[in-house]
Amino acid sequence: MPPIQAPEPAAAVPAGLFVDEAGCPRCSWCQATPLYRHYHDQEWGFPVVDDRRLFEKLCLEGFQSGLSWLTILNKREGFRAAFAGFDAEAIAAFDAHDVERLVQDAAIVRHRGKIESTINNARRVLELRHEFGSLAHYVWRYEPAAADRPERITREVARTLSTSPASIALSKDLKKRGWSFVGPTTVYAFMQAMGLVNDHLEGCHARAAALQARSTLAVPRG
Questions:
Q1: Is residue 179 flagged as an active site residue?
Q2: For FRET with 159, which of 54, 89, 150, 187 sits at 20 to 30 Å CA-CA?
Q3: pTM of the shown model
Protein backbone atom coordinates (compact mmCIF):
# COMPACT_ATOMS: atom_id res chain seq x y z
CA MET A 1 0.00 0.00 0.00
CA PRO A 2 1.57 3.32 -1.05
CA PRO A 3 2.15 5.87 1.68
CA ILE A 4 -0.55 8.48 2.12
CA GLN A 5 0.66 11.82 0.83
CA ALA A 6 -0.27 14.96 2.66
CA PRO A 7 -2.30 17.41 0.56
CA GLU A 8 -0.39 20.33 -0.87
CA PRO A 9 -0.99 23.51 1.12
CA ALA A 10 -3.36 25.98 -0.53
CA ALA A 11 -1.70 28.93 -2.14
CA ALA A 12 -1.82 32.02 0.01
CA VAL A 13 -4.37 34.59 -1.10
CA PRO A 14 -2.70 37.98 -1.63
CA ALA A 15 -3.69 40.64 0.87
CA GLY A 16 -6.75 42.57 -0.25
CA LEU A 17 -8.29 39.68 -2.20
CA PHE A 18 -10.75 36.92 -1.37
CA VAL A 19 -11.46 33.69 -3.21
CA ASP A 20 -15.04 32.56 -3.76
CA GLU A 21 -16.41 29.01 -3.68
CA ALA A 22 -15.33 28.43 -7.29
CA GLY A 23 -11.79 29.61 -6.59
CA CYS A 24 -12.17 32.99 -8.30
CA PRO A 25 -10.06 35.78 -6.72
CA ARG A 26 -11.63 39.21 -6.33
CA CYS A 27 -10.94 42.50 -4.56
CA SER A 28 -12.13 42.11 -0.97
CA TRP A 29 -14.35 45.21 -0.99
CA CYS A 30 -17.01 43.44 -3.07
CA GLN A 31 -17.38 40.42 -0.78
CA ALA A 32 -20.57 41.52 0.98
CA THR A 33 -23.29 40.58 -1.53
CA PRO A 34 -23.80 38.94 -4.96
CA LEU A 35 -24.89 42.33 -6.34
CA TYR A 36 -21.63 43.86 -5.19
CA ARG A 37 -19.65 41.02 -6.78
CA HIS A 38 -21.50 41.48 -10.07
CA TYR A 39 -20.77 45.20 -10.03
CA HIS A 40 -17.09 44.46 -9.38
CA ASP A 41 -16.90 41.81 -12.11
CA GLN A 42 -18.87 43.56 -14.83
CA GLU A 43 -18.61 47.31 -14.27
CA TRP A 44 -16.00 48.67 -11.87
CA GLY A 45 -12.81 49.59 -13.67
CA PHE A 46 -14.11 48.82 -17.17
CA PRO A 47 -13.89 51.84 -19.50
CA VAL A 48 -17.13 53.71 -20.22
CA VAL A 49 -17.71 56.23 -23.00
CA ASP A 50 -21.50 56.46 -22.84
CA ASP A 51 -22.55 59.93 -21.71
CA ARG A 52 -25.54 58.74 -19.69
CA ARG A 53 -23.50 56.25 -17.70
CA LEU A 54 -20.74 58.77 -17.10
CA PHE A 55 -23.21 61.38 -15.89
CA GLU A 56 -25.04 58.82 -13.75
CA LYS A 57 -21.82 57.82 -12.03
CA LEU A 58 -20.78 61.40 -11.33
CA CYS A 59 -24.20 62.01 -9.79
CA LEU A 60 -24.27 58.81 -7.76
CA GLU A 61 -20.75 59.38 -6.46
CA GLY A 62 -22.01 62.73 -5.21
CA PHE A 63 -24.96 61.05 -3.49
CA GLN A 64 -22.60 58.46 -2.02
CA SER A 65 -20.63 61.08 -0.10
CA GLY A 66 -20.94 60.16 3.58
CA LEU A 67 -22.53 56.79 2.78
CA SER A 68 -21.34 53.41 1.51
CA TRP A 69 -21.32 52.68 -2.22
CA LEU A 70 -23.33 49.52 -1.51
CA THR A 71 -26.15 51.70 -0.16
CA ILE A 72 -26.20 53.64 -3.44
CA LEU A 73 -25.88 50.50 -5.56
CA ASN A 74 -28.90 48.98 -3.82
CA LYS A 75 -30.88 52.12 -4.71
CA ARG A 76 -29.52 52.58 -8.23
CA GLU A 77 -32.70 51.52 -10.02
CA GLY A 78 -34.64 53.93 -7.83
CA PHE A 79 -32.27 56.72 -8.81
CA ARG A 80 -32.62 55.86 -12.48
CA ALA A 81 -36.40 55.99 -12.26
CA ALA A 82 -36.36 59.24 -10.30
CA PHE A 83 -33.87 60.99 -12.57
CA ALA A 84 -35.20 60.05 -16.02
CA GLY A 85 -32.53 57.44 -16.61
CA PHE A 86 -29.92 60.17 -16.10
CA ASP A 87 -30.82 61.83 -19.38
CA ALA A 88 -29.12 65.18 -18.86
CA GLU A 89 -31.51 67.07 -21.12
CA ALA A 90 -34.54 65.76 -19.23
CA ILE A 91 -33.04 66.49 -15.81
CA ALA A 92 -31.96 69.98 -16.88
CA ALA A 93 -35.66 70.78 -17.30
CA PHE A 94 -36.54 69.77 -13.72
CA ASP A 95 -37.95 72.57 -11.58
CA ALA A 96 -38.80 73.28 -7.95
CA HIS A 97 -41.79 70.91 -8.10
CA ASP A 98 -39.47 68.09 -9.16
CA VAL A 99 -37.15 68.86 -6.26
CA GLU A 100 -40.05 68.56 -3.81
CA ARG A 101 -41.15 65.32 -5.47
CA LEU A 102 -37.67 63.86 -5.20
CA VAL A 103 -37.23 64.90 -1.58
CA GLN A 104 -40.23 62.66 -0.81
CA ASP A 105 -38.98 59.70 -2.90
CA ALA A 106 -37.90 56.90 -0.53
CA ALA A 107 -36.30 54.99 -3.42
CA ILE A 108 -33.38 57.43 -3.45
CA VAL A 109 -31.23 59.30 -0.93
CA ARG A 110 -33.48 62.21 0.00
CA HIS A 111 -30.84 64.92 0.35
CA ARG A 112 -32.13 68.24 -0.99
CA GLY A 113 -28.68 69.64 -1.68
CA LYS A 114 -27.60 66.59 -3.68
CA ILE A 115 -30.88 66.54 -5.60
CA GLU A 116 -30.47 70.19 -6.53
CA SER A 117 -26.85 69.49 -7.41
CA THR A 118 -27.89 66.77 -9.87
CA ILE A 119 -30.21 69.18 -11.66
CA ASN A 120 -27.54 71.86 -11.74
CA ASN A 121 -24.93 69.42 -13.01
CA ALA A 122 -27.24 68.22 -15.78
CA ARG A 123 -27.36 71.78 -17.07
CA ARG A 124 -23.56 71.91 -16.90
CA VAL A 125 -23.40 68.68 -18.97
CA LEU A 126 -25.27 70.43 -21.77
CA GLU A 127 -22.71 73.22 -21.70
CA LEU A 128 -19.86 70.71 -21.89
CA ARG A 129 -21.47 68.97 -24.84
CA HIS A 130 -21.73 72.28 -26.65
CA GLU A 131 -18.02 72.90 -26.08
CA PHE A 132 -16.54 69.40 -26.39
CA GLY A 133 -19.13 67.42 -28.31
CA SER A 134 -19.73 64.96 -25.48
CA LEU A 135 -19.19 64.49 -21.78
CA ALA A 136 -17.09 61.45 -22.66
CA HIS A 137 -14.66 63.51 -24.75
CA TYR A 138 -14.32 65.98 -21.91
CA VAL A 139 -13.65 63.50 -19.07
CA TRP A 140 -11.34 61.17 -21.01
CA ARG A 141 -8.98 64.07 -21.55
CA TYR A 142 -8.08 63.54 -17.87
CA GLU A 143 -7.05 59.91 -18.17
CA PRO A 144 -3.58 59.76 -16.56
CA ALA A 145 -0.59 58.54 -18.52
CA ALA A 146 0.76 55.10 -17.62
CA ALA A 147 3.92 56.74 -16.30
CA ASP A 148 1.83 58.61 -13.73
CA ARG A 149 0.27 55.44 -12.33
CA PRO A 150 1.69 52.93 -9.82
CA GLU A 151 3.47 50.00 -11.45
CA ARG A 152 1.54 47.50 -9.31
CA ILE A 153 -1.76 47.88 -7.47
CA THR A 154 -1.37 46.03 -4.19
CA ARG A 155 -3.51 46.46 -1.09
CA GLU A 156 -0.92 48.80 0.40
CA VAL A 157 -0.83 50.93 -2.76
CA ALA A 158 -4.62 50.93 -3.07
CA ARG A 159 -4.97 52.33 0.44
CA THR A 160 -3.13 55.46 -0.72
CA LEU A 161 -5.34 55.99 -3.77
CA SER A 162 -8.14 58.35 -2.77
CA THR A 163 -7.15 61.24 -5.03
CA SER A 164 -4.62 61.82 -7.80
CA PRO A 165 -3.22 64.78 -9.73
CA ALA A 166 -5.69 63.97 -12.52
CA SER A 167 -8.71 63.81 -10.20
CA ILE A 168 -7.66 67.06 -8.54
CA ALA A 169 -7.34 68.73 -11.95
CA LEU A 170 -10.71 67.39 -13.16
CA SER A 171 -12.42 68.38 -9.92
CA LYS A 172 -10.99 71.87 -10.12
CA ASP A 173 -12.14 72.34 -13.70
CA LEU A 174 -15.62 70.98 -13.02
CA LYS A 175 -16.03 73.34 -10.08
CA LYS A 176 -14.84 76.25 -12.22
CA ARG A 177 -17.57 75.32 -14.68
CA GLY A 178 -20.23 75.44 -11.95
CA TRP A 179 -20.52 71.77 -10.96
CA SER A 180 -21.11 70.79 -7.34
CA PHE A 181 -20.42 67.69 -5.22
CA VAL A 182 -17.38 66.92 -7.38
CA GLY A 183 -14.47 67.05 -4.93
CA PRO A 184 -11.19 65.29 -5.79
CA THR A 185 -12.07 62.14 -3.81
CA THR A 186 -15.50 61.88 -5.45
CA VAL A 187 -13.92 62.40 -8.86
CA TYR A 188 -11.24 59.79 -8.21
CA ALA A 189 -13.90 57.23 -7.28
CA PHE A 190 -15.66 58.12 -10.56
CA MET A 191 -12.40 57.59 -12.48
CA GLN A 192 -11.88 54.21 -10.81
CA ALA A 193 -15.41 53.06 -11.63
CA MET A 194 -15.46 54.30 -15.23
CA GLY A 195 -12.11 52.81 -16.17
CA LEU A 196 -10.05 55.97 -16.49
CA VAL A 197 -7.81 54.18 -14.01
CA ASN A 198 -7.67 50.45 -13.23
CA ASP A 199 -7.41 49.89 -9.49
CA HIS A 200 -8.31 46.20 -9.40
CA LEU A 201 -5.61 44.61 -7.28
CA GLU A 202 -2.89 42.43 -8.74
CA GLY A 203 -4.26 38.90 -8.73
CA CYS A 204 -7.92 39.95 -9.07
CA HIS A 205 -9.50 38.09 -11.98
CA ALA A 206 -11.14 41.28 -13.29
CA ARG A 207 -7.92 43.26 -13.61
CA ALA A 208 -6.77 41.67 -16.86
CA ALA A 209 -10.25 41.91 -18.38
CA ALA A 210 -10.44 45.62 -17.59
CA LEU A 211 -6.98 46.19 -19.08
CA GLN A 212 -8.01 44.32 -22.22
CA ALA A 213 -11.17 46.42 -22.52
CA ARG A 214 -9.11 49.59 -22.25
CA SER A 215 -6.62 48.41 -24.87
CA THR A 216 -9.38 48.12 -27.47
CA LEU A 217 -11.24 51.29 -26.50
CA ALA A 218 -11.58 54.09 -29.02
CA VAL A 219 -11.06 57.17 -26.87
CA PRO A 220 -13.77 59.77 -27.66
CA ARG A 221 -12.60 62.73 -29.70
CA GLY A 222 -15.76 64.79 -29.71
A1: no
A2: 54
A3: 0.92
